Amino acid sequence: MLIKVLFLCVFFCIMIVVGFYCRKHTTDVRGFVLGGRSVGPWLTAFAYGTSYFSAVIFVGYAGQFGWKYGIASTWIGIGNALLGSLLAWVVLGRRTRIMTQHLNSATMPEFFGARFNSDALKIGSSVITFIFLIPYTASLYNGLSRLFGMAFNIDYTICIVIMAVLTGIYVIAGGYMATAINDFIQGLIMLVGIVVIIGAVLASKGGFMEALNGLAAVNDPTASSAPGAFASFFGPDPWNLLGVVILTSLGTWGLPQMVQKFYAINNEKSINTGTVISTLFALIVAGGCYFLGGFGRLFSDKIDLAVGGYDSIIPTMLADLSPGLIALTVILVLSASMSTLSSLVMASSSTLTIDFLKGTIMKDMGDKKQVLIIRWLIVVFIAISAVIAVIQYKENVSFIAQLMGISWGALAGAFLAPFLYGLYWKKTTTAACWASFIFGVGVMVLNMAFRSYFPVFLQSSISAGAFAMLAGLVIVPVVSLITPKLEKNFVERVFSCYEKKVEVVQKKTLGD
Q1: Which domains does the chain have, with CATH numbers?
Q2: Radius of gyration of the chain (CA)
Q3: pTM (two decimals)
């Protein structure tokens, strides 16, 4: 117990010190929300990765999909690395940084408003962001409950409060820069932790080959009639596995808290370096999490899904580790959760302030007042998410826990296509954006309320979210072709940022 408490104390102290150290970057809105657009490649890449992977992934998704698909669930982590990180940086990174600076936008809704010359679009997207980020934020605490129950003999409510308060302190004090630096520290912990934990768990089952042989011997007729399905290349259900890969990978392209990381990059080199770092980070952390979860069925004699659900799988796998490794696991999951929590509350509070309150309810709002309101809203959002998490834990309201998938699907389904086309295609229209917003949110809300009426392959929130995202990529160009275009001169001014001539040193280009 002393080792566990000591680990936690050191971890929390570092987070708070970093927060107060970064206060100098929070004198104006752009400094508080974007770190003055001066964040380097390592911090940006780790901020992207740690915002991507939370306790929901490590405890919930890794356990659930590892149980369903066996070792093939590792493909989810590989998809996260290649589609959710590598391709996202290549396709979105430079263009997002260039156009958002050109349009002077600090949030995704502010980008929509400036790109399509529509205050209504900005307000509408800010409302969607606010509504669906709150339950997403609350779901972050869910993965911690069983791990803390395993490691500490204290009420889980206290753990929620401690995590919420400490995250609030360093985000409020240091803004985005504090979040980025702490994300880097937390990311290092996640990298080391997942490698060590995988090694320890496999060693407890006789090593990798012995564990793989044990997994091949598992037989579950309800999942697959094929022998050795859980140790096979694509697992017992490859099509549903593909849906999970699409939602958890392509979804990052439309999530405000993820895309906003590209706004803060400081130079060209940072984009190239950050692409490599972010991809490797995702490959190790996400690939490692799902790889670990793939061996969950080897512990089936200790797991009762009827009682504990999928969230009990990973904690059960780790329960017999040494106190030092359990302490490392707790810090790993705390790191994953706090980094994502800080990113979400920053996105929520900045969006509500800059895109909704400013110019609509509060006409006169200077920089200092905006920063003050953002800080107060961070307190409000963290408090609301903590209260929801406590209610879910105390009352065992499974509906709240399910909102993670709904939130992710609604945000990505609504925003992915308009944002992507908005960066690349001059003919994208305002009406097409609205069509994507309505369709993405509508599909996920209807799926939540009337799931049994959906086709079987769309009844899960994961499949519905993947469908909403892919459908948006078709809806936006189709609607754009049949609806009024934006004024040509305005569009040319927006896209002029890509044609601006810049000088670079000889080593960067061969010239003529």
Answers
A1: 2-396 (1.20.1730.10)
A2: 22
A3: 0.84
